[in-house]
Design goal:
Residues 1-170 form the Calcineurin-like phosphoesterase domain. By secondary structure, this protein is an alpha/beta fold. It has helices spanning 13-25, 46-56, 64-69, 80-92, 95-103, 132-139, 222-230, 236-240; strands at 2-6, 32-35, 59-60, 107-110, 113-116, 148-151, 159-163, 167-171, 175-177, 183-187, 201-207, 212-218.
Length: 246
């Protein structure tokens, strides 16, 4: 089975549409789709992105921005621009999408797979896993980890192979092959606001038979996505960073 896994759309419909088109053109066809959260936040088109993700994904995981917008977490401590963006999104979002976000799970488990927005441990805290220190801390919870955990949140493509004796090591794409006897944390990157110095939209495909995950990138109209942000009440910084993938 092929599973299309993507994350952190962040209300960027101009990035999401080419990703969906690429998924639909994939050969062999993708069997099902999972979104790892943060459909909203930062970008200018939360309603359009919610509609597309709801139509595409069999499972959507709750992200921290999703939780904030629909009233499931307190974001008063966020920095001003992010907090203002969440207020803006909460006001712009149609009630049907508010209701949908309120139903999303923090974590989903399929056999040996786990889907989560941030760390699968203390999942409601949305903790980051983007360096070896954080990855090694997860080994302390070995029995709570599935064989392969797919996460988003950091907008990076950093992934880690874990072993209780050897510790954590970083693993690199574009294709990751999963070995028996180890556990993995795979950060799938971001569709709508990449931060790994590559401004193309990022998405991935997991092959359950080959036991591989492959990162894919697709170009999109960044100028158009940025224009919409500039013309909104959102911070211009959210538009500028799209050009640099930071």
């Amino acid at each position: 089975m092929l599973i299309g896994i993507f994350s952190d759309v962040h209300a960027n419909i101009d990035a999401l549409k080419p990703v969906v088109e690429a998924y639909k053109a994939h050969e062999p066809p993708i069997d099902t789709f999972v979104c790892l959260g943060d459909v909203v936040g930062y970008g200018a088109e939360p309603n359009a992105c919610c509609e597309v993700v709801r139509d595409l994904a069999e499972v959507t995981i709750l992200g921290n921005h999703d939780a904030a917008v629909c009233g499931r977490m307190n974001y008063a401590y966020y920095y001003d621009a992010a907090r203002n963006a969440l207020d803006w999104h909460a006001n712009k979002l149609e009630e049907t999408h508010h209701e949908w976000l309120r139903t999303l799970p923090y974590r989903e488990d399929w056999d040996n797979l786990c889907f989560c927005h941030g760390s699968p441990i203390n999942k409601e805290d949305f903790e980051y896993v983007f360096n070896l220190q954080q990855a090694n801390q997860l080994i302390e919870h070995w029995d709570e980890l599935n064989e392969i955990t797919f996460i988003g949140h950091s907008h990076l493509t950093k992934s880690f192979s874990l072993h209780p004796e050897d510790g954590a090591v970083e693993v690199f794409g574009p294709t990751i092959t999963f070995e028996e006897g180890r556990k993995y944390i795979v950060t799938v990157g971001s569709v709508g606001q990449p931060r790994d110095n590559d401004n193309r939209a990022c998405y991935g495909v997991y092959d359950t038979e080959a036991r591989t995950f492959t990162f894919h990138r697709v170009e999109y109209d960044i100028r158009e996505a940025a224009r919409k942000i500039f013309e909104s009440e959102l911070s211009s910084d959210f538009a500028k960073r799209l050009f640099f993938g930071i």
